[in-house]
Here is the input.
Amino acid sequence: MNFVLKEEKGFSYIEEGEGETLLLLHGLMGALSNWDEVIKEFSKNYRVIIPLLPIYELPLLTTGVRSLSKFVHKFIKYKQLSNVVLLGNSLGGHVGLIYVLAHPGYVKALVLTGSSGLYENAFGGSFPRRESIDFVREKVQFTFYDPKTATEELVQEVYQMINDRHKVIRILAMAKSAIRHNMKTELRKITMPVSLIWGRDDKITPPEVAVEFNELLPNAELHWIDKCGHAPMMEQPEEFNKYLQLFLDKIKK
Here is the structure.
């Protein structure tokens, strides 16, 4: 499904629907399209907004998770958002955690899926070999439980990305920043409701990461999705949307 990408004041974003705001944050090598099924389902009753995070536009010296959190704050202020439900996948979850610690007054609740912030096995434990499409295909498949989820189109997108020297330098800088910025000691300060929706077969942020998040966050609930890897909203969208709806209903009460 194609959604219109809006360009305003240096921001690129998708905005669909009306009502309470769901703000969605994509991962390091993720695209806005990763959230297609969430937009389709929830834009019927919610205002769903996804900003394009400026991973490749930041100066190399400031490429890091904190800079992305500052960008999210500028975007939220520009759009005059308040009381949002913030959803983050992978790096997007990590950025969301940093954001709510810095600006808790803007966020009502948090949804994390495959979030970094405690541990992540980026690139399946090895540097991306840029010249090999087969290697890239293998690493993209590593993201999912079912290798078929890694479509040829997705493989080609990642291949092009890591063969762009400007982009790959920033991808690696951002990945290193995420690994260095461990949030274990800070999570207890996040007292808002948090829903952890996790793939039981996630190899990048494995199940024990979700268990640790659940133990450290004071007001968290954990839901497992079977036969699912690092991006539940892509691989098992119906299950993901079901748990998201249950959480949204619960925090309305």
User: Anything to note?
Assistant: The mean pLDDT is 92. The first helix runs from residue 36 to 42. The radius of gyration is 17 Å. The longest strand covers residues 107-113.
